[in-house]
Amino acid sequence: MIKNFDFDSFTSIYADKKISKMGEMLARYQRKLMDLDIPVMIIIEGWESAGHEFVINDLIRELNPRNHHVKEYDYSNRVEKDMPFLWKYWKLIPKKGDMTILDKSYYFNLFNNKEIDKAELENNYELINTFERHLSDDNMLILKFFLHVKKKTHKNRIEALKHDKNRSFFVTDIDNKQYKNYEYYEKRIGRMLDKTNYDFAPWHVVSAEDLKLAAREIIGKVSESVINKINEVSKQKEIVYTRKPFTGPYPLNDIDLTLSVDDDIYDKELDELQEEIEGLTYKLFNKNIPTILVFEGMDAAGKGGAIERLTRTMDARFYDVVATSAPKETEKQYHYLWRFYKEFPPRGKTTIFDRSWYGRVMVERVEGFATVQEWDRAYEEINLMEKNLADRGALIIKYFIIIDKDEQYRRFKERESDVDKIYKLTDEDWRNREKWDPYIDSMNEMLVKTHKENAPWIIIEGNDKKFARLKVLREFIQRAKQFIDDK
Amino acid sequence: MIKNFDFDSFTSIYADKKISKMGEMLARYQRKLMDLDIPVMIIIEGWESAGHEFVINDLIRELNPRNHHVKEYDYSNRVEKDMPFLWKYWKLIPKKGDMTILDKSYYFNLFNNKEIDKAELENNYELINTFERHLSDDNMLILKFFLHVKKKTHKNRIEALKHDKNRSFFVTDIDNKQYKNYEYYEKRIGRMLDKTNYDFAPWHVVSAEDLKLAAREIIGKVSESVINKINEVSKQKEIVYTRKPFTGPYPLNDIDLTLSVDDDIYDKELDELQEEIEGLTYKLFNKNIPTILVFEGMDAAGKGGAIERLTRTMDARFYDVVATSAPKETEKQYHYLWRFYKEFPPRGKTTIFDRSWYGRVMVERVEGFATVQEWDRAYEEINLMEKNLADRGALIIKYFIIIDKDEQYRRFKERESDVDKIYKLTDEDWRNREKWDPYIDSMNEMLVKTHKENAPWIIIEGNDKKFARLKVLREFIQRAKQFIDDK
Q1: Which of A391, A455, B359, B403 could form a disulfide with A396 if both were Cys (CB 3.0 to 4.6 A apart)?
Q2: Which ipTM value was assigned to this complex?
Q3: CATH class of B19-235
Q4: Which residue of chain A has the CA closest to B102?
C-alpha cells in the first residue's frame, strides 16, 4: 500500500484555480529561475498508462519551449548497462536556468524490474539519494511526482489506450504485468517512495483518477516549490559557512624524496614492466573491467612522462587519456562532476585522467574559484562518486606524484631553455608556485579525506623521474593483477 | 583486385629509417599542428586481423597522449541506425589541434555488409566524399590507410590470432567470411577505394605483409602530409578569395506584408489546426519519420510565438526545441555544423530549431565572424547536409518569417515597455537593426541558394502575428500529411 494515501479524500488545493493562469504564472517564475541560474529537474513517475503525457503537456504549456526539455524514458537501456549507475542521467540533467522534465526516470527500473535483488536495490536507493542531494546542494530544484491510480482505473486507462488509434502503441507488457500484480507493485512502489523521500528531493503522490485535477496539483506544487527555491537562493549569500578545520595527519610531510634508481636498472625494469602491462590490458578487457587511473601532483611533477611510459605497450584502442584543464563555459553550466561522467570508460576499457575532479579541492580551493562550502562538500561528493564506480566493478588507482620546491624550480628552468618543452610552461605555473604552502595544505587534506580502500591514493616520490615512473608501473601491475584475481 | 597494387615491388621509402626517430619527429610536428589549430583525422582500414593495432601503436608511440585519441570501431552499430548516415562520426571528429585515429570507420560497413544495394552504396560514397571535403575545407588533414595482405598471409594472421591467448577474442565471423571470399572482397574494396580517393582525403594502400615496414610507411606518410599541411595553412592567409557576386532573384522584395486575419477567425482556426497537429505528431511517430523544423527570420519576427502555437498540442515527449545562439568556446573548436549534428532527432521525433546553421550565411556573414570563403562555401555544405537528412527519411520544413523595418521598431518598443518581454530585447538587436540592408541581402541570397525540394523554405508574412502563426501551422499540417501519404 502506498502509505498515507487516501484516494477518497484527495483534492488538489488548486482545484478551483484556472489552469492557464497557473501556467502563465509559472512561466513568469521560470524567467526568474533563469536570472538566478537555478536548474530544475522534475520527475514524473507513475503506474504505466496513468497519463504521464497528459500532465506533462499541461505543465509545460505556457513555458518557454527554449528552456525546458522533456526527456522520455528509454526502455531499450542500450548503452547504460555497460556504464556506472545513473551515468545516463548525468548527461540529462538541466543546465543552470533550464528545466528538465523526465517522463519516467531511474526510478522506473527499480519498481518494475523484479530481477534486482534486495542488496542492489538498497545500494541503488543510496546512490540515488546521493545523486539528488549533490545536485540539490548545487542549487538544483528537484521535484518528484508519482501518478497513482486505483486498480480499476488502471485497467480502464489501459483499455482506453488500446483503442486509441494514435496511441495504442503505448501499451506494452509492463502495463499488463502491473495490472495483474497490482498489489505487489503497490508495495514495491511504496517502499521505493519511502526510501527516496527527502527534503532535498521530495516525492508527491498525486491521484491521477482525475487527470485535470492531477495536472493542476502538479503545476501548483511546482510553482510553490519554485517560489520557495527562489527565496532560498536569494537569501543564500547572507549565510556564513564555517567549516571544521583540518588538523592532520599530513601525509606529504614524511616523503623520502631522495629515492632514485640507476639508469641501467631503469632501462631493464621498464622493459619488463611494459611487457607485462601489454598482456594485462587484454586481461582487463577480457574480464570486462573498467579501469580509471587518476594522476595528480604538483606542476612539472612528471605526470605526462609517467603516463607515456605506462601506456606505451597498451593497446591504443583500449585506453584514452583525458587532460583536464579549467572548466569551459558550457561545463560551468552544470554540476562540476558533470564533465567527468562523460569520460568514464565502458567495461573493459581504461580512462587515464591527467588531472581530474580533484581540481575542486586543490586549484579551485586555493584560487577561490569555488566557495568554501562548495569545495568542503566536494570530499564527500567525490568519495561517493568513486564508490559508485567501484560498486560497478571499476578498478580505480589514484597517483599523487610529489616533488619538492627546488626540484620544481629546476624543471621550470629546464623547460624554459628547451625548445621542445617550453610549451609546457605557462605563467600560471609560476603563479601557482608562489602559493606552494596553501597548495600543500590542500593536498594533504585531500589525500587524507579521499583515500579509500576501493579508490586508494598511491603517493609517488617524484624527484627522480625514473624512480617515479617505475613505481607507477609497478603499482599498476600489482593492483591490476590483484583485482583480476579477486574477481 | 586492388588496382595498381604490386605486393612484390612494395617497399616503404622509409624502410631504412629508425622508427623511434620518425616518431619523435612526428611528435614535434604535432605541436606545430596544435599551434596552427589544425585537426587531423587518420583512418586505418584493412583486412580483418591485418594488424591494425600494431601499426596504430607504432604510430602514436611518441605522440603526446593528451592530444590524440584512438577510436575503436563499434561493431554493435547501436544507436546510429536510427540516425543520419555519418551522424556518429560527426561526434568523433577531432577538435582543432587534436588528432583522431579511427581504427576502422564508416568504410568498414561499406565493404563488409553485402546487404547494402548498389544505389545506397553510391549514395554513401557521395556522402562520405562530401563529409571529408567539408572537413578538409575547414582545414582538417585527412589521411586514409588500407592495410593490404595476400590471401595466404590473411589466413596465417587469423590462425596466429586464434592461438594468441590474450587476443583470440579479436577473431570473428568477419575474418572467416573475408578469407573464404577473398577475391570478392578484394573487388569490393578496390571499388570503394577508387570511389573515395580524392586529393582532400587520399587513400594509401599499404602492404601489411611486413608490419614493421607498414608502420614505418604510415608514420612516414603521415609526417610528410603533416608538413605539407602546415606549409599550406601557413600560406593560406596570402590567398585572395573572390566570389561570384549574387545577382538575384530577390524573393524578399515581393512579400505582401499587409496580409492579416481577424481575431475570431484566428481563434477558431487555431483550435482546429492544433487539434489536427495532435494526431499528426503520433502519426509521424508511428511512421518512424524524423522531423526537422527550422525557424529563421528577423529579430522580433515572431519565431518564438509561432513555435509555441505549433507545439501546444504536440506530445511533449516527441519534440524538442533547440535555441541557437552564438557558438560557445567548445563549439568553435569544430566545424560549424558539428553542434547541430548532435541535435538531430531520431526516427519518429521532432527537433525544432529556433535559429539554426543558417546563422553562418546571415549573422556570421554580415558581422564578419566567418571569412568570405567560409560562408560562401556554406551554401553547398548546408544543402548537402540537408540532403543527407532527407535521404534518410527526414521531413524538413524551413520557415522564414519576415517583418518590415517599421513593424520591427514597433515590437522593439513594445518589448522595452513590457516587464514580461523586456528580457527578449538586447543591445545586439538594436545593433543588428542598423545593418538592415546587408541582412536583407544575405537573406535573399540564402533563400535562393538553399531552397530545395526536400528542404524547402516557406516564407511567412509576419507583420500580422496571427496570420503568420496560422500559416506556419497550416503549412506544417499540409506538408506532414503529404509526406506521410508519399511514404
Answers
A1: A455
A2: 0.82
A3: alpha beta
A4: A317
